[in-house]
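Can't paste images in this forum, so I'm doing it all in text. The chain is below; anyone willing to post the predicted structure tokens underneath?
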Amino acid sequence: MDSRPFSVYVREDGVYLEVKPDVEVGKIEIIGYLKRQGIDVEEGLVEELIDQRRGEIVKVSDQVPPSAKEAIIEVEISEDGLTASIHIIPPLDERNWPSPQDLEAELKKRGVVFGIKEDVLERICSEKLGHQWIVVAEGIKPVNGEDAVIALKVDVERLKPKIEDPNVARVDLRELGAVINVLKGQALAEKTPPKEGRDGINVFGKPIKAKQARDKSLPKGSNTEISEDGLKLIATIDGNLVLKDGKLHVMPVYEVDGDVDYGVGNINFIGSVVIKGSIRDGFSVVAGSDIQVGGVVEAATLRAGGKVMIRGGIRGMGKASIEAESDIMALFIDQAYVKSNGNVIVERSIMHSTVMATEKITVMGGRKGIIVGGSSSAGFEISCVTLGNEIGTRTEIQVGVVPSLQQELKSILEKLEDFREKLNSIENNLNYIRKLEAQGKIDQPKKALMLQLSKMKLQLQYNLEFYEAQRQKLEQEVAKINEACRVKVKGVCYPGVIINMRGVIYMVKEKMEYVTFYYDKGEIKFSPYF
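Text version of the structure:
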């Protein structure tokens, strides 16, 4: 709304001026304004209007400039066509302000037909808002679609070498993280569906095309499946995650074409591991199932949830450690620690090593089939072609010992002892409370305690019966093993060999051939090989 302290009127015969009463105004302000509009006035007349004739409408000029009769309406449209703005140069005579219809007509001349803000046009006219750009029409912005996103749900950062000390950036090249273990049912990747775009419309009423979203497929490879909702990729087996040709595959076997060395790093895999080369000094291979090695195992560590097969043998240098929940098979074993929860089967030789098997140790494949040096122990039987050597190297042999059974039996005996001690303590407390009861001196808390102790007694008695039965069962199993244990030598057994059966020790003092050692009635006896 115009707030000037004077008004200007344009008529056919000239320009008229009215100075509003009771407002502060100077002649310089009025004369300057009129001159900017192209109107020259007498200074004295303006002074007279200010001083003596306020409120009167007085003609001040016979000249009427063309620009003073009508407002100038300018329209500007943004480059993207989403907004239109109006700028008004007001008319000299306020009565000649354009109407909202005039403004809308000017917009339509420029092709603006959509998103016109009628309320804004009304305000511009009612408040006479001139000399400023005002947005009077707005289109609708397009909303671009969002592409589908595939997110891997496995930690691929583990494939990078690990830095042990960030201060020196020293990388443990053995820990290259070459294996990514995944479990059956594990989510490998997750898809966020695409979000469709929405077209817009500009102030000309024309559509603005939105960018359309692109869908993406989950990287389904072998041994994977897509969930029913189509949003997850799931492993169908336990295995090693492999990214190949843009697809995620779960492989049940982890294969190494060459050696396990600094180029491969340590391996820890949930399934089976096949190594076509050798396992070099200082490296480790841990497998949830079997391990197969085509070459030699040096001073390395192997742990298998299944069996271990080493075609090239073990050259341990006193540092190798091989353990398996099933059989261990090797061409030879030299200066190594080997433990099997099944059998140890060797073709050529066991030399200066510690070898343990829950069932049997067999070295019968080679011409000599020798066990010499170190210690070998098995639950049932040890058989070989040659035991010891001509120079009398100390070679310890033990049979009839199953470490797992012994450990279990030891644990049960400890539990039985603990239960008996607790039962004895409860019996003493119960006897004391019963004496108080007989004397009529028992109160309610002690009655509650007696009931609680009686329940504990029954539970301990049950535990004693259960574990006593377990003890007898284990002792029977150990006795059967002791009865069946044998040491069989198909060729020569040399002095220096020490045989231990059920705690009874037999030291071989002279060369023996084609012999079988066995336990009988508290002593170790021998007979021809069978």
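Residues 444-484 form the longest helix (41 residues). Confidence is low (pLDDT under 50) at residues 159-173.
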